[in-house]
Amino acid sequence: MSFPKAASVVVIGGGVMGASVAYHLAKRGQKDIVLLEKEEFFGQGATGRCAGGVRYQFATEVNIHLSLASLPMLERFPQEIGQEVDYRQCGYLFLLTEEKDIAAFERNVALQHKLGVQTEWLDGEEIRKRLPLMKLDDVLAGTFYAKDGLCDPSGVVMGYINAAAKLGVQTRTGIEVIGSVVEGEKIKAVETNKGKITASIVVNAAGPWAGLIGQMAGVEIPITPIRRQMLTTTPLPDLPADFPFVIDFAQSLYFHREGDGLLTGMSNPMEKPGFDQNIDSDWELVNLEAAAQRLPLLEKAGLASHWAGLYEVTPDAHPIFGASAVEGFYVVAGFSGHGFMHGPIAGKLMAEIILDGQSSTVDVSMLDLARFDEGRLIQEYNVI
Ligand SMILES: Cc1cc2nc3c(=O)[nH]c(=O)nc-3n(C[C@H](O)[C@H](O)[C@H](O)COP(=O)(O)OP(=O)(O)OC[C@H]3O[C@@H](n4cnc5c(N)ncnc54)[C@H](O)[C@@H]3O)c2cc1C
Fold this sequence. Notes:
Layout: E1 9-12, H1 16-27, E2 33-36, E3 53-54, H2 61-75, H3 77-81, E4 92-96, H4 99-114, E5 120-123, H5 124-130, E6 141-145, E7 149-150, H6 153-166, E8 170-172, E9 177-183, E10 186-192, E11 195-198, E12 201-204, H7 210-216, E13 224-233, E14 245-248, E15 253-258, E16 261-266, H8 281-294, E17 303-313, E18 320-322, E19 329-333, H9 339-356, H10 371-374
Parallel strand pairs: 1-2, 1-12, 2-8, 4-14, 12-19
Antiparallel strand pairs: 3-7, 4-6, 5-6, 9-10, 10-11, 13-16, 13-17, 14-15, 15-16, 18-19
Helix pairs in contact: 1-6, 1-9, 2-9
Bound molecules: flavin-adenine dinucleotide.
C-alpha cells in the first residue's frame, strides 16, 4: 500500500476515539480520510488495556447524556457496524463506606433519575444480601443500575476500523506522527516517521499521548498520563454468573467477572504521572490484599494475567472536544479513565463538530479546550 502524501482529514490515533471519529466522518460522506496509528495493531493503547466497563452512573449531566447516547450505540453495534461486541448488562454496584460519599451519591442518583436513569439506592443490608460472598460489614449503602455492564474494547475498535475501511478510509498502522506543520495559525500537514502528509484538518485522538501531539502543533492540551493496572484470576467456579461490576468507591477498588474468573483493579492515589506501562508489583500486592479482604474466595485463585495502561486525565476529569487555536487542528481526548464507553458517541459528535461547526446529538460545547484558560472547569465525583 503506498504512503498517502495528502488527505482531507488526518486522524491521529487508532484507539476507540480515532476509530470512531474516522468511521463517523466517513459515514457522513467525508472523503479522503487517513487514520494513523503508531503501533503495529489498532487498539493497543488505553482502549486495549481498559476494563471494558460501561455505565450510566455519573455525577454530571454531560457525562450522563454522553452515556445515554453512547451505550445504546454499543447495544446496536452488531446490527449497525456488523461486529459482535459482547455487551453484558451485569449492572454496576457502587459500595459506599464513608458518610461523606452518601450525600454526594444521593445527589448523583437524584440527577440520574431526573435524566431517566433509574439507579437503585440500596441500604447496607440489601447489599450484603445481594453479595453473600463478599465481606461488607462496613458498607453503609450503595447504588445499582442494571443496564450498566461490560463490553469488548477490541471488538468495538476493530468494528469501527473495518467499517471505516469499507467506506474508503485509509487505516494505517506502524505510522507515528512526529511533528506538524502550522502556518499562519492553520494546520497544513503532519510529519510522520514515513514522511509528510498534507491536510487542512487534523484530529488529535491520541489518548494519553494527546498532550504530546498538541505540543507538535503548538497547542497546549492539559492531559496527564497516569498508570492504572489490573489483574485477572484463574477460574472461580463459586462466583455467580450474575456477579455485577462491584466498586468499593472509597478504596477505588473494583471487581468484575472475566471469563470464568475475576478481574480486579485498584487505583493508586500516589501514582506519579508518566508513560510507564510496566506492572508495579508492590501495588499489585496492595490490590490483591484489599481484594481478598472483600472477597475471601480470591485466596483460592491464581493469577491468570495482569497488565498496566494509562489514564488520560484532565484537570476536571472531563474530556476535551473540538477546535483549538490552530485552525483545522481538533482534539478528542482526555476522557479521564472512562472513554471506552463514550467512544461511540464521541466519534459521532466530532463528525458533527468538524462538518457542521457544532455538536447536535449531545451539547458538548462546554467541554471545549478553551475552558481551562477561561476557568470553566466541571467536576466529576464518580472517577474510579
Ligand atoms: C487500566 C484502565 C482501565 C480502564 N477502564 C475503563 C473502563 O472500564 N471503561 C471505560 O470506559 N474506560 C476505561 N478506561 C479508559 C479508556 O481506556 C480510555 O478512556 C479510552 O480507551 C481512550 O481511548 P483513546 O482512543 O482516546 O486512547 P487510546 O486507546 O490510547 O488510543 C490512542 C492511540 O493513539 C496512538 N498514538 C499515540 N501517539 C501517536 C503518534 N504520535 N502517532 C500515531 N499514533 C499515536 C496510540 O498508540 C493509541 O493507540 C480504562 C483505562 C485504563 C488504562
